[in-house]
Amino acid sequence: MIHYNLTCENGHAFEGWFSSSDDYSRQVSARLITCPTCNSASVTKQLMAPSVSTARKKEARQALVMDQAQKETITKLREMVKSIRENAEDVGERFPEEARKIHYGEADQRGLIGKASREEAIALLEEGIEVAPLPVLPDDTN
């Protein structure tokens, strides 16, 4: 996992953890990262000092290791995401359009997955269309 110090356009500082720098870039481009203080999606990385390994840092990292219950939860989440993907139609960028068709009875009821911007997801929710993002889980190697 990669840790970044982030700042929104209003100067609020917060941090984020990402599976890779590409994961960070993808989430910023999709405007999925928002400031916990003002909800702004205009977010940038801040300069950070390199991490130097010390005995104290090693102890701190060991405290971050997942316990068995956390591992079981991640495993269950991974199974849930797999099941959803296997039992839903991936409509890609057409997700908002297809979700509306189903909601308003213009298409048969079925499970959908796809892509929607933050604004599109909010609009769907405001129309009473239930949507939720699939969780992004830590890599198997972490």
Description:
The protein contains 5 helices and 5 strands, in the order ββαβααβαβα. By secondary structure, it is an alpha+beta fold. It has 2 domains: 1-46, no CATH class; 66-132, no CATH class. The chain has helices at residues 21-29, 55-64, 68-86, 95-103, 118-126, and strands at 2-8, 13-18, 43-45, 89-90, 112-113. The strands form 2 sheets. It has a 3-stranded antiparallel sheet with strand order 2-1-3. A two-stranded parallel ribbon has the order 4-5. The mean pLDDT is 86. β1 and β2 (13-18) form a beta hairpin. It holds the Pfam family DUF1178.
Describe the structure concisely for a colleague:
With 142 residues, the chain is α+β, with helices and mostly antiparallel strands.
